[in-house]
Amino acid sequence: MRATEFTRPIQTERLTLRMPILEDIDPIHAFQSREDVCTYLLYEPRDRATIEEKITEAATKSRLENSGDWIQPTIERRDDQQVIGLIYLNIDSAEHQSVEVGWILHPDYSGQGYATEAASAAVDFAFGTMGAHRVIAKLDPANDASVRLCRRLGMRKEAHYLEDIWVKGEWGDTGVYAMLDREWSATDR
């Protein structure tokens, strides 16, 4: 897998995936502070101060080389520059060339194909630019929308771990979906 610097935004037909800046705090707070958005996430709704800390940290993360390295670009609509979500890329294992992808989208923009478009661009970046052998998504198996998105991306279900994570005061399950580079190469992008 190639060491990669995320320095230029990724453009899709309708979206730009770019590094976050502090000016993104209001649109990010608009969805990360919502209970319904955080239902399937590993954290409770966030206040502005926490979001500011997270943006500041994410703004310093651009190099993907070692296990645990991550980036969290914003999902921005190209037509009005509105930030509508976040994409997450994490090197799950540099040795095994495995990259994790994740996404969060403001509910006002769901059902319009934005999550699929952004996640597809992130998967293309992981395979095409980073040279990953495998891309995975870890999610709450009860999150039907994310399960459907994984399937649209061409990922297959590989695991359902029962009560493997302590989150929000209770045991939760983890679903794992994945795709290999050869499967990605065979898709019609």
TrEMBL record:
<dbReference type="InterPro" id="IPR051531">
    <property type="entry name" value="N-acetyltransferase"/>
</dbReference>
<dbReference type="GO" id="GO:0016747">
    <property type="term" value="F:acyltransferase activity, transferring groups other than amino-acyl groups"/>
</dbReference>
<feature type="domain" description="N-acetyltransferase">
    <location>
        <begin position="38"/>
        <end position="183"/>
    </location>
</feature>
<dbReference type="InterPro" id="IPR016181">
    <property type="entry name" value="Acyl_CoA_acyltransferase"/>
</dbReference>
<keyword id="KW-0808">Transferase</keyword>
<dbReference type="InterPro" id="IPR000182">
    <property type="entry name" value="GNAT_dom"/>
</dbReference>
<dbReference type="Pfam" id="PF13302">
    <property type="entry name" value="Acetyltransf_3"/>
</dbReference>
<protein>
    <submittedName>
        <fullName>N-acetyltransferase</fullName>
    </submittedName>
</protein>
